Amino acid sequence: MNEHDLLNIKYNSYDQARNEMHQLLDERAGNLSLPQPFYNDPHMFRADMEEIFQQEWIFVGMSSEVPAKGDYFTVEIGQNPVLVVRDAEGGIKAFHNVCRHRGSKICREHRGKVANLVCPYHQWTYDLQGNLLYAGTEMGDDFDMKAHGLKPAHCRTAGGFVFISLAEGEAPDLDPFLESLEAYMEPYDMENTKVAVESNILEDANWKLVIENNRECYHCAGNHPELLNTLLEWDDTNDPRASEEFLAQYNRQAEAWDAEGIPHKHVEHGLRNRIVRMPLKEGAQVMTLDGSQGCKKMMGRIKNRELGSMRILHLPNSWNHMQGDHAVVFRVLPISAQKTLVTTKWLVHKDAVEGVDYDPAKLRQVWDATNEQDRRLAEENQQGINSIGYQPGPYSETFEFGVINFIDWYSETVRDNLKKRAL
CA-CA distance, 364 to 102, in Å (whole number)? Predict the structure, then answer.
């Protein structure tokens, strides 16, 4: 069998997997988990990357991570390296981190600051707008510099959050969510924050299992003692399990939020995006182990230390907790069919001084424990799904409605994008 025959087998297998994927999604019952191949098949993982992570809007980082001209950070979306940079006019742009000469990565580091973007391989040089400035005289007199600028990626920012889309042509509409995000994040003044500490966990589990685990607190009582010191397990104010006691607490705190002009009403944009402010347990200021302050300096214009947690969901890859004195943001990036990178960042006021205003160990204690517990749960979930004994199981419509919403969004999005490619 020659190389051409092997390639045909490879691509035929992928095409068959896409067809099977479409059929299984058409046939799935809405209250059941997905069939096994969605969680462990490499061909279906490739389809996930092509139909979700190369088409939809992906959360990649915070605008305060690139505070000044020439500041950049890099991120890997599957096999697609991307760089995000603050340009000379103060805007934030995203480019494929790929030199137009021979394809080498341009920015090697996770973060940095540059005057121009210089490829380390042959020193091709680009400005912060992606225009090619230098390619050497070796390319000849007829070489068109203007035709070899960096390839841009769609990039949008709102409320301090940076989103990119690798879609060719027009990206999906994100404007309604961005408008809500900008309004709800206004009190925090995220441009004037900084990353106090960051963690990265590599989980041996499919990315959907990581998101599914996050979308319910059914497992919290048995697994997250540190988190439940301060967190109320209700998913949001519309949670069908919410007690009268919780609703009364919410209404009391809402009066204080209204007095300070802090947005708090539940807002959602389809199943993909949701923002809701939730109280923490009575007396808790933030999600530290004992509920006491995480940072002496408050964020933005906030004065109320019992602000609760504003939860922001953005599918496919982010959930966030915005609190009075610090924020915790989460990013999920698939690595392979059974490997996922989970990044957590704790942000504080940019003028807060480590060791004086905040202790990084105290900030991260609860979520370090929770992330490790969730890693174990996701990996054990993956191991069970890999078994020949696995078959799709039923979700609880009350305790796991958030998981149902995620799987419904995933199924609809993949199905629609598969159809578009088939046209």
Answer: 42
